[in-house]
Write a structure and sequence with these properties.
The structure is a single chain. By secondary structure, this protein is mostly helical. The chain has 7 helices and 3 strands, in the order H-H-E-E-E-H-H-H-H-H. A 3-stranded mixed β-sheet has the order 1-3-2.
Length: 229
């Protein structure tokens, strides 16, 4: 069963990543009618939103775009910073959505920020605890299952909080691009929507994966407790 769970969740994650790249590449063609770049869109969205303390930068690599709330830095890949396609503008506007969330003290974003540290430790546990248990035999099976359940529970909750953060940023991106006239109705708006919707599936896949492994380790503990009762 563990192999079925592993292969199934891995297949879901790989499918989600493949879909993002496929949809992104499809809509990363041509130039939007407004002629603006992703970098220009990001700067204008932040300016109109009254956000003047966020630095916009570009970096090499594909789809490494992110907003760093600690250093207030919005990083776009070069393809999206200089690109003029619906995909480039959609990604740039999405990252601006996170900057706007931060400026407006959007609660799920702050919850996710607060949980980064403990989630990092939880990831270490799920990576290394099974190896320690196998090679040393120092961890009792039920103790290991308990620790794994707690760690996967933390990761699952982190991924759960991430969902509204990402969906809200995409919603903001779609609205602001249309309102500011950066994209035209029809094919351009459809391209932005499809790229952002495809990206959302990666977060859904991460949540489903963490939920599945959390339940896998939790249910035996509950069953064992009922048997003792």
């Amino acid at each position: 069963m563990i192999w079925i769970l592993f292969i199934g969740t891995m297949a879901l994650s790989l499918w989600a990543m493949w879909r993002v790249k496929s949809v992104y590449n499809h809509h990363n063609q041509g130039v939007v009618r407004s002629g603006v770049t992703g970098g220009q869109v990001a700067a204008e969205i932040l300016r109109r939103s009254g956000i003047r303390d966020v630095q916009i930068a570009h970096a090499e690599g594909l789809l490494g775009d992110h907003y760093d709330p600690i250093h207030k830095r919005l990083v776009l890949s070069e393809a999206n910073y200089f690109g003029r396609s619906p995909a480039a503008l959609g990604v740039a506007a999405h990252e601006c959505g996170h900057a706007i969330q931060h400026a407006q003290a959007y609660r799920p974003l702050h919850w996710r920020m607060a949980a980064v540290g403990i989630t990092t430790y939880a990831n270490y546990i799920v990576m290394f605890l099974p190896l320690v248990g196998i090679f040393t035999g120092l961890i009792a099976p039920m103790t290991g299952a308990f620790l794994m359940a707690v760690a996967w529970g933390v990761i699952m909750l982190f991924n759960l909080v991430t969902l509204p953060v990402e969906f809200d940023a995409s919603r903001r991106a779609k609205v602001v691009l249309a309102e500011f006239g950066f994209i035209a109705p029809g094919d351009e708006a459809t391209g932005v929507r499809k790229v952002l919707d495809a990206a959302a599936w990666t977060y859904v896949a991460a949540f489903i994966t963490s939920l599945a492994f959390f339940l896998w380790h939790l249910l035996p503990l509950l069953a064992g407790g009922r048997q003792r009762d």
